[in-house]
Every structure is written in structure tokens, then in C-alpha cells.
Amino acid sequence: MPAGAVVAIVGENGAGKTTLVKLLAKMYDPSSGSIFLDETPLARVQAAEWRSRLAGAFQDFFRFEFRAGHTVGLGDVPRLDDEPAVLAAVDRAGAADVVARSDIRAQHPARSDVGRAESSYPSASWQKLALARGFMREGAAAVWSWTSRQPR
User: Fold this and answer.
1) Which side of the chain, N or C, has fewer Cβ within a 10 Å radius?
2) What confidence score (pLDDT) does residue 145 get?
3) What is the pLDDT of residue 146?
4) Residues 127/139, Cβ–Cβ less than 8 Å
């Protein structure tokens, strides 16, 4: 795949789409065959180095119950408190409705409950926050693994 290419992998449940994405993200090594980055086998690249160049979200994302800004900002920890970057990621993910509910700008340390992502959010809201988190890294290769089911 050339740099900048957009590739969609579709298939039936259990066909291996998520496995392929996790292999590309070097979450585990292939049991047979090889993955190459140009002429370099991915197996020769350090996992931490490779992952620092990736961004994305998986269908089995984690629900961080922090302020919404931090829940999103964790996608690029050095920019955790970079409000313009967080708001841009939120916009790209279509999560403005979720963030409006939790007030992303609530940063008052004496009121840690203000602006927290709530465990009672519907699944679709958590998905939007996970997508926004994936949009935090600039210039990274995007890796997404998402179900085609409509969230409940």
C-alpha cells in the first residue's frame, strides 16, 4: 500500500479482519508469512518504534472515565492538554455532541467530577470518544478495526 492510501478490508464475521489489523499494528507476530514495510520486514522493527507511528482505534476499545478532554487526549499523551488538538480530534470523530455533554473545558482541579466521561454513556458515545482518541496523532498511519453493526 503506498503512503496515503486508504484501504478498506471487509468480510464476514470471523474472516480475520481484526487479526490482520492487529498484525499490522504489531500487536502480535504472524505464525507464518511476513509483513514488510517497503523492503524491511516488520519483524525487524521494534514494536514501540512502530506503534509510535500508528494511530487508530479497535472495536474492543477501553472506556477511560476521565474528563472528556483527557479521554480523547490519551491518543497522543504529549498533547494530552492541547485543547485545540483535542477539539480538532473530537470534530473529526463527530463526537461534539458527547463532549458537549461532559464539557471538555472543565479543568478545575477542585472539582474532579466536572466534565468526566460517564460510564452511563451509551455505547455509541464511547465509540465516538475512542475514534476521537485515534485522531489525536498527526502524521501517523491510521489503523482502524470497527464492527459494521450499528451501536446500541
Assistant:
1) C
2) 60
3) 58
4) no
Cβ burial 47-70 (10 Å sphere, 16+ → b, else e): eeeeeeeebbbbeebeebebbbbb
State residue 103's pLDDT score: 53
pTM confidence score? 0.64
Sequence-separated contacts (24+) of 99-108 with Cβ below 8 Å: 99/68, 99/69, 99/72, 101/125, 102/67, 102/68, 103/68, 104/67, 104/68, 104/69, 104/72, 105/69, 106/67, 107/67, 107/69
CB-facing half-sphere around the CA of 24: CA atoms within 13 A: 20
